[in-house]
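Handover notes (outgoing to incoming on-call)

Open items:
1. DUF2142 domain-containing protein: sequence verified, structure written out, both below. Nothing else pending on this one.
2. Nothing else urgent.
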Amino acid sequence: MKRTLGMVAILVAVVAATVCGTMWALSSPPGSSPDDNYHQATIWCVGATESSSADTCRVVGTSETTGGRVVEVPALVANPSCYAFDPAQSGACQLPLRGRTATTEALDNGTYPGGFYDVMHLLVRDSVPESVLSMRIANVALGALLLGAIALVTTAAVRRLMAITVTTVLVPLGWFMLASVNPTSWALSGLTAFGFALHTALLVPERRRRVPALVLAALGLTMALSARGDAPAYAGVVTVALCILHWRTLWADKRLVVLPVLVGVVCLWRLLVAAQVASIAGASAETDRTVDQVLPNLLSEFPTLFSGMFGYGFGLGWLDTPVNAVTAFPAVLVVGFLGLTGLGRMSVPKALAALLIFLPMLVLPLMTLYRARLVVGESVQPRYILPLMPILLAVLLVDRVADRALTLSRVQAVAIGLALAVANTAAIYANARRYVTGIDGPVHIDHLEWWWQSAPSPGTVAVVGGLSFAVLAATMVASSWRPTVHPSADATTGRPTSGPRHDPTPDPDPVPSPSPEVPA
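DUF2142 domain-containing protein structure tokens:
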């Protein structure tokens, strides 16, 4: 009975996440995520030749500047972002583009791995808006199903970890990117799934659960590696971090070492052929700024690269869609609270694992900006380091031993769930309003300059997105719905004597650990 209820809860969470992501997909028109003109043209032009139809994609020449293809595609594919960098401009500027074609050379010619584009091309139809919407929903559903499958085979502690992490770390940028045709969608969901699945495989001793976990880890890794060129480096970092976290398990069963070795070989191979990483490594100055002009800015403003994931310092879309304080403040506050809570239960392996994940998130963006002589806010965006954020938070929320996760109190879980449900609802509405009327329009949307055909109203989309997120957050609340007991409480009264509070309740689905970690 208990197992059946658990499976039902996972199914409800998967459906709720898919509905929430679908509402995010509806909240903006085609071309609304960064570089969508580039990514859309690449998706439409998979396998295109000179004899292909221009209604999809036809090669019409070779670029004199890049040497790549020049193609003819629907104008709404090549030039969808007529509203970019002008937040007062609604999506209505796309209306004259319908039924027309345009030429462009802004498409991928080998910089990205390509697998993401191949799969998305399968969803190309005659209608560009319908095609984009189906791709967005498919990406959301794929991520939700993959994480739901991991939840089925993992332990109760990891399910609690997944519920807390996924609920808190995606508002608002994570949801926006998941529900997009940007390769970051797969990098985020794939790397998150890979991390949780590998964590599970190193935890569970039973073959019946370890094998499915490894299969799901392989699927997540494949998604990430087929999406972005920097994903191999990120996957390698996650792998090493989890090996540190589980070093006692690997030491006790050395056969498991083959897992990180295989991942390392695959990631190294992909890394060596990744043009994106090569371009970062060879970055050169793009401005005339001196070191004295750049360095103070980088040292004082770098936190916005992290807070930008949660709506503070960077906008959504082409960085031109601001979210309200009712979104940014709770999101930053909750993630900060959870991170500091995790720091309160530290061990040497956990500290090293968290540091290993955090350093690339900090160093790589700053190094790129420094070498290009750029300041924070130029070129490098929070979405580049977003794929590592769920795993970083998950590592911080692991207890001192890897088979347990920290537990929120009832009040904390409910407060976090309610705050983020409001934040998510407000973010969907703000994103929709920006494209329906522009941010110069009334706060209450009273007319539609742009909207999808046959779609619910923007207000309905925001409400449904908020309610579905609340259902998802309820799984996090339910997983934390246990009393917090003091470790030295009197057996009769239950009152604490002294010392810090933590949750000593045995995990309902425990996995034996060789021995406890040594506290830092």
